[in-house]
Give the backbone structure.
Amino acid sequence: MQTPDGKPQQAPGGCWLRRFDKRVAASPDQVALVADGWRLTYHELHDWVGRVCAELTRAGVTKQDAIAVVVPDGRSPYTTAAMLAIWRLGAVYVPMTADQPVERTRAALTTCAVRVAVLEPGELPPHLPDGVETHTLPYPGEADTTAPDLGRYPNPEDVAYIIFTAGSTGTPKCVAVPHRGITAMGDATARALELGPGARMLQFSAATFDASIAEVTSTLGSGATAVFVEHERLTDGASIAEVFVTQNITHAILGPSVLAAIPERQMPQGLRLIVAGEPANAPVIAEWSVRHHIVNSYGPTETTVCATISDPLVDVARHVPIGRAIDGTRLRIVDNEGRDVPAGNVGELWIGGLGVANGYVGLPRESAAAFVDHAQTGERFYRSGDLVWQLPDGQLEFVGRMDRRIKLRGRRIEPGEIEAVAVRHPDVRQCAVVATDAQLVCFVVTAGEVSGGEIRRFLAERLLRYMQPDRVHVLAQMPRTPHGKVDYRSLTASAKQHGRARPAPATMTPIEHLLCGLFAETLDLPRFHPDDSFFDLGGESMLATRLARRIKGEFGVAVTMRMLLDAESPAALAALFSARNQHGE
């Protein structure tokens, strides 16, 4: 599969700062950004950027120097002013949080050759590598007469920013992204949201998440107003809803897990939203699309934030498309050999065009593996590792991650497929599936009073046996990374913590006593309480088969997997046996 004409859609090249300067010239008195106690027009923001440029110039910053911008939790107007000033000087914006681990900071900043770090006023510098100077960003104010010429623009091929992503070795990978794709990305985001003067766009994402760059460029490039709020007000669904109401927010980019946590009925009607960053939940999107304009966007960090945007999401039943290529982007869906797959087949998504990053700083081997040239045309593509297929209307649908595939009990399992089935349950709002060495574990956030056992039985009726989760845990909310995505690492650690075997009570029925012994023996536990769940204490399908054989040998009763799902404790199974005996079964 390729883009329809086999070529990238035409898109504006050059540097995004030209967009910003046109807005300053056209609407200097339009409000550019607001925050608690802040209100700056486009002209005032332009002057502030000049003051920051003057400060950085005095610090000796020159073209393509990497400048660390140290931010507290979340984001503030200082982050935006610093980024624009760094771009003005042709330098490289490197956002980092003040509280990230010392070793991670040193490794990343050393790799990027950072020698200057800037801080917000009143902030103490974090632990930085030797030789890194710190400078405090100036307050907004009159234009600095010593500011350099602000009419110059970086070369489109110059690196604009470096974002840290997780590395498989535990050391962050530093993705170097050039200017060339930023304008097309910002324009596509603004069009999808229908942004323009008068719109108020929430600046939701943390500065270290590349979605923050989409928020800034789409807002300021279209003449809208960027709205900043304290990080603490964006940490739970009810607080986020309050922000939308009190700050008159009209537009936002939110992760699907964030959207699922917000009480939709508390939100003002007619919002224009992009969901991005992780797979969207069809039932949640269906709920929100009744009163709001919603599109889905997709794009790895390695492709300048966004590669595809969907049509407006209406009548969403089971699948949420990730959309079509934005202008300047070319897509291929390929098999394991890098050959285009027939339309409608699942394959890995390769992304080419203006937005493709330069690679990983200091990691030539990893860069060569992830960024490849087309065998015939020589065009450069990023191998996303994401599995997609093309829908009949030409949009793409995300199927899952190649590296989230699980090999368990000799079977290859795609967690995304299980998650897609789970969210069809009317009470399931979010789902995440992980694996331990022996178990498949499902975590859900629900809207009603529903137990993990009920969800497990729901899945058992719809999934092949080897794909059925051994445990289902109901959570009040999904753990999230600082970037707002589901924290699969935290869930995996939680999944490895089985419940503790409790001592058996003094009084049990003879059947319960025998079953507790069989359960304990099968799970290699010293004891087993009659009310404890077989699956919660480490049971899985292979062990369940072994347990069923032991029970049949002891009682002469054939126990099916469905019976163990319905009666997962010795007491429940004993009650089931008694009921069947009473009915002569």
About this structure: The two ends are 57 Å apart (CA to CA).
